[in-house]
Specification:
single chain; about 700 residues; mainly alpha; two-stranded antiparallel ribbon; 33 helices; 2 strands; elongated
Length: about 700
């Protein structure tokens, strides 16, 4: 064989080998592309969206939590019933629910305009913001480092962590998802400000603007200024003089909104001074920090309310609180040993800073901890944990497997948690199951049983109404038995007793309530009503007087004081108060009706008829009003008109026996004895007359 032939054969064989290599490379590329789907942002965001949906899809129809904040924010919020300029002005110039959060109230107002109190859109908007926040978490963490699995992992943990259900499933926490949205956007624009050489002024101004929007959504955003310093530490620019100068607007905004928040929350700050000494409060702060840390890894025994610890014999906190400082010191040592890992340290710092305002340094409310407080802090903690995993678990597949297992477990747990938020009964029954000696939970559930189920939902079902009245009384009594100095259940039980005509019991409870909270004017108003129904009108007027000193714009108070004057036949003062009530609220039919009564009792029938007609404009189906009009016409000898009005009264209420009595007299006066006799027979049958 010639050399030429050999070379040809060699060339052919070489090409075959090369072709094999090419084919092999193609297969590798194809395979790689299949394994790199998550490199495409669209697929990542789709994964994050689906993760959020798997947790929260069934929560869109959850009811309003009538016995905790939702009633105040949605059902009884005067600022959201319209989007008028006056309402918007009032939103920005007033505190509401011990908070200053005008942007959140505007979001409520927009939703209310479209659906009123129907829950779906509130939950859906809240869910969408949570999804957007999850996207922003992924974006933010991606800017901090270049390992995609860490960015995805942090975002997934944020999306599905069971501790975040409270922030997403509870309509009253719209402020959480809203402030976080602007908070994260501000962190991203700040990153661009620091790291992009051009358009720095633009990014700086965007950061300030987004920070303001976050502050207007929820006061918790005041901590953003300190978070920026943590960002500067991460970017290794903390000790530059310019770094501190550029923070001046942020710290001024934080200071201003901090002062506003303290003023707004003055009534909500719990006075636990007599209960907790300084060192005990410090122990609780440390306990809360570790509690939030522990719940990140093991979110078990979750509760919407975590009570303050009961002191054991000798007046000391439970032993676990004295162990916590040792645990805390151990954790600090671990962080110190890992101090060279910048990402880990920054994650822990982000977690700690965002907990500072809610860890218990300033005690707010009656609970030692709340799950919603972890919504932002857990971003940093997730970042720290995944950074350590990436550093010490070298096997990429193991990291992915661990992450997937945790995300699946958290997704299932969080989804189950959404069922607890189905309604107020499920929510506080869950608290009672976990903390059976927590009086706050019994009081809130009892309030739901009475104020919503018995008084509203089942008001036309006597059996169910009676059932929930009994359940409410049981819960209020249980709360009192557990903690006899807990004031609120006395108020609620006293109001319940008043409504079921047990006035002596009502007075006892309201007296006890005012003994415990002498400055609470709600007790004065309700005790005044009870005293009036007991015929103690002079005493009731004293309570109304004291109430009006504090709340002189309450139309109901003037009406009820007017009724007490009316029963004392002090018509001048009665009429004055009833007209004052109308001047404050011209749409309430009751003061018009009672003015009609006042003038009727003075035989001023024209004025009586005028106010009775005004009452019917706002309540055209009130039998008593037609009945009193009929009585006026009898006294002015307009008998046919009287019969017409009294017949209308009987049509609306066949059991209005007073109307039958007046109509029988009217029939007699016109000589219609047959119809008069029919009315008399009905009165005799009901033992009104013999």
């Amino acid at each position: 064989m010639s050399n030429t032939s050999k070379n040809k054969i060699h060339s052919i064989n070489k090409n075959k080998v090369n072709n094999k290599k090419i084919t092999s490379n193609k297969s590798i590329n194809i395979s790689t592309s299949k394994n790199q789907l998550l490199d495409k942002p669209l697929y990542i965001y789709l994964l994050l969206f689906i993760s959020c949906l798997l947790v929260y899809f069934n929560s869109f129809q959850n009811e309003l939590i009538y016995n905790w904040d939702d009633a105040g924010y949605i059902l009884k919020n005067p600022y959201i019933d319209s989007l008028s300029w006056q309402n918007i002005k009032d939103i920005f110039s007033n505190f509401y629910f011990s908070n200053y959060q005008p942007l959140t109230l505007i979001v409520y107002a927009v939703i209310f305009k479209f659906v009123g109190t129907k829950v779906f859109l509130y939950h859906f908007v809240q869910f969408i913001f949570h999804v957007l926040n999850t996207f922003l978490v992924y974006k933010f963490i991606s800017l901090l480092q270049n390992k995609k699995w860490i960015s995805i992992g942090v975002a997934l943990l944020f999306a599905v962590h069971p501790m975040h259900v409270e922030s997403v499933a509870w309509i009253s926490e719209m402020k959480d998802v809203l402030y976080t949205f602007f908070f994260l956007l501000a962190l991203i624009t700040y990153h661009y400000y620091v790291n992009k050489p051009d358009k720095k002024t633009k990014w700086y101004l965007w950061t300030i603007f987004l920070f303001i929007l976050s502050l207007l959504s929820k006061p918790s955003a005041v901590i953003f200024s300190v978070v920026l310093l943590a960002m500067d530490l991460y970017y290794e620019r903390l000790w530059r003089w310019r770094t501190w100068i550029e923070k001046i607007p942020f710290f001024l905004l934080s200071l201003g909104f901090g002062i506003i928040t303290l003023a707004a929350q003055k009534s909500a700050i719990a006075d636990i001074g007599p209960i907790l000494k300084t060192y005990e409060r410090a122990l609780i702060v440390i306990h809360n920090y570790i509690l939030y840390l522990w719940k990140f890894f093991l979110p078990l025994k979750l509760s919407v309310a975590y009570p303050y610890p009961s002191k054991i014999a000798g007046g000391a906190l439970p032993t676990e609180f004295f162990i916590m400082p040792i645990v805390f010191i151990a954790l600090c040592i671990i962080v110190y040993l890992l101090r060279k890992d910048k990402k880990f340290v920054w994650g822990i710092l982000f977690f700690t800073i965002n907990l500072l305002m809610v860890v218990g340094i300033i005690p707010i409310g009656s609970m030692v901890a709340n799950e919603r407080y972890t919504y932002v802090p857990y971003i940093g903690l997730s970042f720290a944990v995944l950074t350590l995993m990436d550093k010490y678990i070298k096997n990429f597949k193991i990291n992915y497997i661990i992450l997937i297992i945790v995300v699946v477990i958290f997704t299932i747990s969080a989804h189950q948690r959404t069922y607890v938020w189905k309604n107020g009964e499920a929510l506080f029954s869950d608290v009672i199951k976990k903390y059976p000696r927590y009086p706050f939970a019994y009081n809130n559930r009892g309030f739901l049983y009475w104020n919503y189920y018995a008084k509203d939902k089942y008001k036309d079902n006597p059996a169910l109404k009676e059932k929930y009245i009994k359940k409410a009384l049981q819960d209020f009594t249980m709360a009192i038995n557990i903690f006899p100095d807990y004031a609120e259940p006395y108020l609620h039980r006293g109001i319940l007793y008043y409504n079921i005509y047990k006035f002596e019991e009502s007075l006892t409870d309201l007296n006890k309530f005012l003994q415990l909270e002498p400055n609470n004017v709600d007790g004065l108003l309700n005790r005044g009503n009870t005293l009036a129904f007991m015929g103690k009108y002079e005493e009731s007027i004293q309570d109304f007087n004291n109430y009006i000193k504090h709340r002189d714009k309450d139309p109901q108070a003037y009406m009820w004081r007017g009724l007490s004057y009316l029963h004392l036949q002090n018509y001048n003062l009665a009429i004055k108060d009833l007209k004052k009530s109308i001047s404050l609220d011209s749409t309430n039919y009751e003061p018009y009706y009672w003015l009609g009564v006042a003038y009727f009792n003075q035989s001023i029938y024209d004025s009586s008829l005028y106010f009775l007609d005004k009452s019917l404009q706002f309540n055209p189906n009130n039998s008593n009003t037609y009945g009193l009009k009929g009585a006026c016409y009898i006294n002015t000898q307009q008998y046919h008109k009287a019969i017409e009005q009294l017949s209308k009264a009987i049509e609306l209420d066949p059991y209005n026996l007073t109307a039958y009595l007046y109509r029988s007299n009217a029939y007699k006066l016109i000589g219609d004895l047959a119809n008069a006799q029919k009315d008399i027979e009905i009165l005799q049958k009901n033992n009104v007359i013999k």
